[in-house]
Design brief:
MdtK-like; DinF-like; globular; transmembrane helix; cell membrane; 444 residues; 18 helices; mainly alpha
């Protein structure tokens, strides 16, 4: 039975995926908003949360690519009616991924000060970075495990259960943030920045436990490691490696941006922390239709339904653009109140307001990139995604940033570079999709 490409089926995947997706930036946004209003050293705490958050996002995005590879393979086998052939693949993939994450965790924990000095952190900000990271880093393997299981559900055309887990994690994190950061009079002392770290760690642990039991209860896929290795493990590894390199290029841009903002001064890294959290929030919001493209695209490819695939691409980009226009409207209407959620430092807010409009105007570019990015992951086009990110970062983002810096644009150069970066990514994916699948459509 062919997959019906209609608004109902797309939204059945996209809406839960959107809610699930924004849970990750909500964790960071919650920390940023609450930490930015700490009565003692609020500016330094905000800067440290931004720096550590950027580094942890890099680690998660680099190693979390197994999620997309698992989703692509499972959805393609589901479409081909051969899902039984890959039931032992997820356990093998997750096992090796967690081992790698533990290795990296133990490697970074001993050189943590040197890592954050690369971000131009020093003095009290460096001290806060080390204490915050030393707690939050233990949630890294838990998040990778949760993401991998989310990928299994997505491949099975189910984004509802990941949404439930993500909501529970986000709500729990917000509650614990208020309790641990500000304390409870007479019961629990205020822990400030370290309290935010503990809130995130506990929330990540609860999400990992819940998703484990949900997978066991709702699917036939076992997480018990079995041998011999599945025949698709090699393809999954190569897909993951291409996405690994891609994620390195992606995070190179994010890290360079953080480093340049930090070098400009405390108010700039504070403003950049607010802006990048809102950028990531909008990214995951738009990415819901990319997730629908990921799940349905892989299944349609497995069915060899190229007409359906072409229709899917047109529909998800249309719906994604509508979402981005709504976000733009919200951004302009609540231009000033949004900033005040995150900080009470006037100098930080004025710096943020100076670049926020650039981020808002770039949202349609983000939509093209994120929606087609999700679709291409479902199609297994990881090598092309890798090449696009390398080109966009080192031929687009970096030259734009340093040319802007040379001509005295300062903080503006960072956000202009982001717009150029996303325009290259989106344009290249649209071009490739049309060139590859239009001939197949005509021949079907």
């Amino acid at each position: 039975m062919k997959t019906a490409v209609n608004l109902k089926n797309i939204n059945n995947l996209a809406i839960p995926a959107t809610i699930s997706g924004i849970a990750e930036p909500i964790l960071s946004i919650t920390d940023t908003a609450i930490v930015g209003n700490i009565p003692v050293d609020g500016l330094e705490s905000l800067a440290a949360a931004g720096i550590v958050g950027s580094f942890l996002s890099m680690l998660i995005w680099v190693l979390g690519q197994t999620r997309s590879a698992i989703s692509a393979i499972i959805s393609q086998y589901l479409g081909a009616g051969k899902i039984h052939e890959v039931k032992d693949l997820p356990a093998q993939a997750i096992f090796f991924n967690i081992l790698l994450s533990l290795f990296l965790l133990l490697s970074t924990i001993f050189i943590v000060e040197d890592i954050f000095r690369l971000f131009e952190a020093s003095g009290k900000i460096l001290e806060y970075c080390v204490s915050y990271y030393s707690i939050r880093v233990w949630g890294f393997p838990l998040t990778l495990f949760t993401f991998a299981v989310f990928g299994i559900f997505r491949g099975l055309q189910n984004t509802y259960y990941p949404m439930l887990i993500a909501i529970i994690g986000a709500v729990l994190n917000i509650v614990l943030d208020f309790i641990f950061v500000y304390g409870i009079e007479g019961m629990l002392p205020a822990m400030y920045l370290e309290g935010a770290a503990w809130a995130s760690l506990i929330s990540q642990g609860v999400m990992a436990i819940l998703v484990f039991f949900l997978l066991r209860a709702k699917t036939d896929i076992s997480l018990k490691l079995r041998f011999p290795l599945n025949k698709e493990l090699k393809r999954l590894v190569f897909m993951s490696l291409n996405l690994f390199v891609r994620a390195l290029a992606l995070n190179a841009a994010l890290i360079i941006a953080v480093r340049e903002a930090t070098a400009l001064g405390d108010r700039f890294i504070g403003a950049h922390t607010i802006a990048i959290n809102l950028w990531l929030f909008s990214a995951f919001f738009i990415d819901g239709y990319g997730a629908a493209g990921n799940s349905m695209g892989g299944k349609l490819l497995g069915e060899k339904d190229y007409n359906g695939l072409w229709t899917l691409a047109k529909k998800i980009i249309t719906y994604g653009m509508i979402v981005s226009l709504v976000l733009m409207l919200v951004g302009f209407i609540f231009y000033y109140p949004l900033g005040r959620i995150f900080s009470n430092e006037e100098i930080v807010l004025q710096t943020f307001y100076g670049v926020f409009f650039i981020m808002i105007l770039g949202l349609p570019m983000n939509t093209l990139a994120f929606v087609f990015d999700g679709l291409f992951k479902g199609l297994g086009e990881m090598k092309y995604l890798r090449n696009v990110l390398l080109s966009a970062t080192f031929l687009g983002f970096v030259p734009t940033l340093y040319l802007g810096k040379y001509f005295g644009l300062g903080f503006y150069a960072i956000w202009i570079a982001f717009v150029v970066w996303m325009a290259i990514r989106g344009g290249a994916l649209v071009f490739k999709f049309r060139r590859k699948f239009r001939p197949l459509l005509q021949n079907q």
